[in-house]
Amino acid sequence: MNKKFLLPLSFLSMAIFFVMLYLQEYTWVKTVFKALPVIIFAWLIGIEGRYRTYISIGLLFSALGDILLDEYLNLFVPGLAAFLIAHVFYIIAFIYRSKKPALEGALAIYSIGGIAFTFLYKGVGELLIPVLLYMAVITTMGWRAYAARRYDSYAQWAFYGALLFIASDSLIAFNKFYTPVPYHGWLIMLTYWAAQYLIFKSAYQTRRKNQKS
Questions:
Q1: Alpha carbons 9 and 11: distance in angstroms, whole number
Q2: Residue-number span of the structural domain to which 16 is assigned
Q3: pLDDT above 90: residue 207
Q4: For residue 116, what are the CA distances in angstroms to 129, 160, 162, 173?
Q5: CB neighbours (10 Å) of residue 176?
Q6: How far apart are CA 59 and CA 79, in angstroms?
Q7: 195 domain residue, yes or no
Q8: Mean pLDDT score of the chain
Q9: 99/102 Cα distance (integer angstroms)
Q10: Is residue 1 part of a domain?
Q11: Is residue 60 domain-resident?
């Protein structure tokens, strides 16, 4: 199957989603266009090799989270759980590449997470445990991406993607639990898709390199 059209299709899907976001069209069609880019990323990577397989599974759980969290369904806790599982698979992928402690990265990223939580904890209410657990997992994902960033010439893209993922989810959290963020829908999706694209590229480019060798 010729897959050359799939990557442009993912970007077209993003553009259509933003048009629908601008028009405030909250239908299942918008949800499809929201999840489609990440599904395409997973399809392009496939399940060849452990790292690519783990990243691909993480992308698919992310797509499930996209569907559950979209305004059409608005299922926050199930969506949070889907993304938590996605991050667990990303963590496994990064640990597969590097088991180095990288304590300086852990200190920096967990400190940022702790500072962010001091702003959020009063607003999370009964969601305290799920939100705290999620923050612990996503910061761990960032830490392990940092530890694996020098695995090859593409691994640093996953680290930058992890940082953007943390930024995107921080926008969600601050908008929901602390104070409204102007243009939050646009900012969240831009940083989110950039994050997923960079993580995808870290696996996709590795696959292309292996195919050529």
A1: 5
A2: 6-212
A3: no
A4: 15, 19, 16, 9
A5: 17
A6: 13
A7: yes
A8: 93
A9: 9
A10: no
A11: yes
pTM above 0.85, yes or no: yes
C-alpha angle 192-197-199 in degrees, rounded to nearest 5: 100
Q: How many domains does the chain have?
A: 1
Confidence grade of residue 73 (pLDDT, cut at 50, 70, 90): confident
Residues 133, 38, 33, 178, Cα dihedral to 10°: 30
Q: How is residue 151 written in tokens?
A: 């695995």
Rounded CA Rg of the chain:
17
> b/e map of 85-94 (b: 16 or more CB within 10 Å)?
bbbbbbbbbb
Q: Is 86 helix (H, G, I), strand (E, B) or coil?
A: helix
Give the list of residues 6+ apart from residue 52 with CB closer than 8 angstroms, or none.
45, 46, 203, 206, 207
Q: How many residues does the chain have?
A: 213
Model confidence band, residue 70 (pLDDT cutoffs 50, 70, 90): confident
Q: Specify whether the CB–CB gap between 112 and 70 falls below 8 A.
A: no
How far from 77 is each of 38, 80, 109, 124, 143, CA to CA, in Å?
Answer: 20, 5, 24, 12, 24
Taking residues 31-51, report their average pLDDT: 95
Question: Residue 16 falls within a domain, yes or no?
Answer: yes
